[in-house]
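Bench notes, afternoon.
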Amino acid sequence: MNNKKTVQTGFSLLELMITVAVLGIISSIAYPSYMKQVQKSKRTSAKVELMRIAQLQESYYVQNLSYAKALSGNAAAGGLGFASGDVFSEGGDYKMILEPLKANGDSDAACTGTSATSCIAYRISATPVSGKPQAHDGSCTGLRLTNTGAKSAKSTTHTSYGTASVRDECW
């Protein structure tokens, strides 16, 4: 008689299934958290672009005694010098919109961006581009910055700008 036992090496099917189940549970918890961090990082690129445009506006104001009325066009036409067309954040996830304002905060379509008919205030908005991943960021559906440095944001639950809790989460 042969009394030697055979030693098995490797994993059984049950051990393998338990490992796969544990990995599935861990990834189902980690993936949404990862995606939330990706959305936050892309918001940062929008904030950087808003601040860059605000800095260009302040330089423009020093030289022209008026804020620019548009992002595109040269200073003689009241523009900040961006190429014609839309202006986007790095990565193209947010579209930038510049709006000249009157003293009361209403839109000012009459200003020219020159000292003759100056634009006395502005608001820059960043909105997620449709079809890009940021369009699914319900926490921050828009960011704004004004010439006074006031920051605001909106979300899917707070659809107007001005809610402090949304501003604090987004900015």
